[in-house]
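User: Can you predict the 3D structure for this chain?
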Amino acid sequence: MSEKLVIIGGVAAGTSAAAKARRVNPDLDITVYTDDEYISYAGCGLPYFIGGKIASRENLLARSVADFAAQNISVKTLMRVEEIKPENGKVIIRNLQNQLTFEDNYDRLVIATGARPFVPPLERVELDGIFTLRTIHDSLKIKEYLFQHRPQKAAVIGAGYIGLEMVENLVEHGCQVTLIEKAPHIIPNMDADMAQILTQYLQSRGVEIRTGETITGFMGNKSVSGLSTDKGEIAADFVLLSIGVQPNSEIAAAAGIEPGINNAIRVNSKMETNKDRIYAAGDCATTSHLISGKEVYIPMGTTANKQGRVAGENAAGGNASFSGVLSTGIARVMEMEISRTGLCESECQALGINYISRRIKSRTAAHYCPVSGEIHLKLIVNQSNNRLIGAQIVGFAGAAMRIDMLATAITVGTTVEDLIDMDLAYSPPFSPVWDPVLIALNQF
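Assistant: Here is the predicted structure, written as structure tokens:
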């Protein structure tokens, strides 16, 4: 009789684990339980679906239940795993359609329960017109509300990637947008001087930016009409809460699985938990930072897919490992692009790293090309060994993807001297003769 792998969760990490496990072990019995009706979808595309740039929700779906069935992987939707029993290798599942419960056995278990938006316990947070954005269902509710109520004044609370992308798409819907961030500047995982460039751009496009401001409650009867902060009141007939996520780790904790930072499930490089034969991956799990070596919780879709692949391979009898992350991220807000990787200055300071930073302003292409746009690039170098440990980019078309070569350089531990003579491709539509990356390196 073949061994049985049960996977809890069916979006990024869960479906990646299932697909990889099947490739490693063709005979493994694989069942995926998910409490959603949608599986394997592109959550990062949801803001653009709301804005109409992606025409159909079906375009966001990577694979279907039938696709997995063709690989002999059973995906059970609208099934919520409510309890894990490590002592006898069982899970208790509730069928959300009829509310009946049943149990299933496992030989190996992968927990890929993801994360949920953090919703603070604020006064009247339950009013109509206040949303979070995490799932396809969330996006459908937001789209319906925007088309039915035609809000005029939108407030986006939280200036991370999703919040910023939603600013663009709410402007597309004709909203006057106020962006509110508790931190001293927007894009809190970048440095203030780089964030200021985007701040000025958004203000030039009519977006009101309010930083260092904390939400204290909401106003309205049935629907939201505004919000209060520690600095006053703001009129709004649409609110998006985009202030981070918290891992869905309660079911793991109840089973005695050890939590790590931010109450995410602690895993090692093989995605193993402290319980034998139980793995965890994705937005419910921790990882390690490639520079500091410290445990971190940085939920990203790219990381979830990689961790899911490793968990699936090992649960099927393999020996894979995941080395960690650099917190590499990228986003576009209207015509402006932002990206970052490695450590920013505040993170270096918190870790006690002596560093040098340099920032340059250049062009994305030769100045005489119509596609040429402004690019600001900041590099951070470890003063003790001259290794590149951080990079940030803000600019226009063609700017942000340069972060990938810098993430590669940081991953392999290169110094400024290693990089300064890189033979980068040149053609006027793609770069000046001196690429901005080389110009920045030459500042050290």
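The mean pLDDT is 95. The first strand starts at residue 4 and ends at 8.
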